[in-house]
Amino acid sequence: MEIKRLVLPGPGPTRHDAARLCARLARLYEDGAVAVECDAQAVTAPGLGTVEVLARLRLTARGRPLRVTGAGPALRALLGLVGLVELLGEAEQGEPAGGVQEGVEADDLAL
Question: Which of 6, 40, 60, 111 could disulfide-link 22, Cβ–Cβ 3.0 to 4.6 Å?
Fold first, then answer.
């Protein structure tokens, strides 16, 4: 399983970086990457441009594995506010972790 890295520019990618980063992500998948990790260590001042870039990267991935690594507290909080926390590979509060299926008992009542 080949996991590739895509490095996000600091202090925060802007909407002007989106097309270049999406094209790079698409090339990584075309070249055989099974999953891609977006390295966000350089992102020290995330804003709405960063959110747009990450949302567009998620759309470009088209359901293939994409995860943000190295996210600082500000980026983590921002992703939580806009509903993109799953990019961090963590479950939202009150949600099961990705890939976890809740069990159903035979005597459970249908809702």
Answer: 60
Tokens in use for 99? 């890939």
Place of tokens 């698409």: 26
14/49 Cα distance (integer angstroms) = 4
Answer yes or no: is pLDDT of 91 > 80. Answer: no
Split at pLDDT 50, 70, 90, the class of 88 is very high
**pTM of whole model > 0.85?**
no
- Residue-wise pLDDT tens digits, 16-49: 999 999 999 999 999 999 999 999 999 999 999 9
CB contact set of 32 (below 8 Å; sequence gap of 6+): 2
Residue 73 has a CB neighbour count (10 Å cut-off) of 7
> From CA 28, how far away is CA 22, in angstroms rounded?
10
Report CA-CA distances (Å) from 5 to 22, 45, 51, 101. 13, 21, 19, 29
